[in-house]
Amino acid sequence: MCGIAGLIHRGKSSNVGQELQGMLQALKHRGEDSTGYALYGDTDGQNFIMRFKVGENVAEGSSSIKEDTSVYDERKKIVDRYLSELGARVVKEDRILPYSLRYEVKYDKDLMEFSQRIESVPGVEILSMGKSLEVIKDLGNAKAVCDRYNLDKVVGTHAIGHARMATESGVDIKSAHPFWGYPFSDVSVVHNGQLTNYWNNRRSLENKGMRFMSECDSELIAVYLAEKMRAGATLEEGMRDSLTGLDGVFTYFVATKDSLGMAKDTMAAKPLVLYESDDLVAMGSEEIAIRSVLPQEIDTYDPFDGEVKVWQI
Amino acid sequence: MANLKTSEKKTKAQSMGLHSEVLTGKTQQKFFNPDEAENFYYFGTHDVDFNKRTELDVKDMDCKQANGKIDELMSQGYGTIVIKNPQGKHSLGVGILNKLNLIFEGSLGYFGCGSMDGPIVRINGRVGWSCGENMMAGKIVIEKNAGSCFGAAIRGGDLICKGSVGARTGIDQKGGTIIIGGDAGAFTGFMMQRGRIIILGDVGINLGDSMYDGTIFIGGKIGSFGSDAVEAELTESDIGWLKRKLKVAEIGDNFDVSKMTKVVAGKKLWNYDALEPTEKKGAI
User: Fold this and answer.
1) In this predicted structure, what is the pLDDT of residue B261?
2) Which of A142, A297, B48, B167 could cysteine-pair with A24, CB 3.0–4.6 Å?
């Protein structure tokens, strides 16, 4: 069934890593196959932060095939070479786990060409590319992933996340949310629901040059919105189009460098509870997620069917 | 399926458009003799004293522990229980089958106070999805907003939300009354079979979609009518009933009920053919 959560602080920064961990952990009964964070941290905005993987987590419960870690090293070497050939300079490099890396990269050319080149290495996937955004996703519940990647110290303005119960695709990182809005910098999406016109939309978008890395229907939302924005639509316009362009039941969040949005399908079949004040918006599949950051008595509500909302930091 | 007949002599409920048919057959069968009521035992019920009051802080309890504690307090005769710090937890106050004053100082998550038969509940906060689901009797008053599927499949009692509610309010409702002070989402009264829904504000699309029977009263704008939901004439009897009901519910002071829209089932979708599809094929 999956659970989603998100929050945005308006006019200030906060410990969004820890806050989102609390919200997602409160939703762990909705799925513990994998958990993902899209954190918009405080940075100087000079360089791109590239989160990418060179392999899958093959721990117990994973649907991925085990590979020798030497394969990861080989892939990393090729990525490093391609970055050099693309004219990208790696300013800082962190290998968080054997299969998961974080690079700070100085690069000022086309992101689509960049991504296509890096992802031409088999087994390599860019999880996020942005000057503020970092997507971290892995198998396990929110606390496990937070501890594994030391996310509880991340300070920023907003964040969205996802606790996943795998239903229509594998238990692996590539099917985990959030999805990066390739090839747009700092765009991420999480989704709760099922999309029934996935393949029609996917074929249409692939014909327009967009890329899919998984067979998870939720990835379609990120690609759909990215294509709309590439064609000149604003984020909110793209989200409103999605209410008719996407078929099925869904509630999804999308975040950009300076905004956070939500959309709910016209059947209102998937839950969402929302708290809104002048300095904070917090929302989740269940109120219990919001309670983890706001334990005091507050006023919350369910957005109606077909509702789209966007907030700025 | 019970046999359906058209009634010549209308009861008061029938004159209000609640239902027009007379049920016969197994549906009307009496399952126990009232003369033997003293021998009747309702499993899991307690004799409680409303004047015996206590408080219960459930901050560090899960729903099973909290419900177990409420049951324990009822077994000790407490008839007024105040629950502190529910903090959006799911399934609190479910399955209570005796009289009780239950007060929640805060908000509930999913399935709050479901499957209950008798208690009077006040929730000084918001409720999540499916509050009061399958309620048989009693009263639940929510001071703030409610989630979707509010009052799903209730059989009786009053379910009152002073704020707004999500989608599919009163889905599969089989009796009782649901009263909403604010707005309601899409598919309100979806597949309802009996009972009444009163919405003082606006409603979303597909109001009363596929409703079998029952009545919906709307005070504000209607997004759209669902399949087989039709507008009916608001009678003096309706207006009188609405006034009394809102007064008792302590909601909608000075609200002009005479301007409400009454919605009932058009009954064009009714098809109580006794044959299964395969049998029908053979018969044709």
Assistant:
1) 97
2) A142
Q: What is the pLDDT of residue B2?
A: 41
Low-confidence ranges of chain A (pLDDT < 50): none
Residue percentage of chain B with pLDDT more than 70:
80
| Chain A contact present for B109, CB below 8 A | yes
- Report how far residue B249's alpha carbon sits from residue B162's, in angstroms, rounded to the nearest whole number: 9
> Cα–Cα distances in Å, from B14 out to A125, B9, B150?
65, 9, 25
Contact B90 A288 (CB under 8 A): yes
Mean pLDDT of chain B: 87
B130 touches chain A (CB under 8 A): no
Domain boundaries, chain B: 4-283
What is the pLDDT at residue B3?
A: 44
Give the pLDDT of residue B31: 56
Q: Which of A171, A103, A165, A166 is closest to A138 using CA atoms? A: A171
Q: Kindly calculate the radius of gyration of chain A based on its CA atoms and give it in whole angstroms.
A: 18
Smallest CA–CA distance, residue B167 to chain A, in Å, is 6
Give chain A positions within 8 Å (CB) of B145: 299-302
Query: Angle formed by the axes of helices A235-245 and A219-230, to 10°?
Result: 130
Residue spans per domain, chain A: 3-306
Count CA within 13 A, CB hemisphere, residue A130. 26
* Neighbouring-strand partners of residue B158: B139, B177
8 A C-beta contact, residue B96 and residue B116: yes
Find where tokens 């020798």 sit.
A68
Structure confidence by residue, pLDDT tens digits, B104-156: 999 999 999 999 999 999 999 999 999 999 999 999 999 999 999 999 999 99
Active site residue A2: yes
The CATH number corresponding to B4-283 among 2.40.30, 2.160.20, 2.60.40, 3.30.70 equals 2.160.20
CB of A296 within 8 Å of a chain B CB? The answer is no
Residue A70 pairs with which residues in a beta bridge?
none
Provide ipTM, 2 decimals. Answer: 0.82
Residue among A288, A284, A290, A312 at smallest CA distance from A3: A284
Q: Are A300 and B107 an interchain contact pair (Cβ–Cβ within 8 Å)?
A: yes
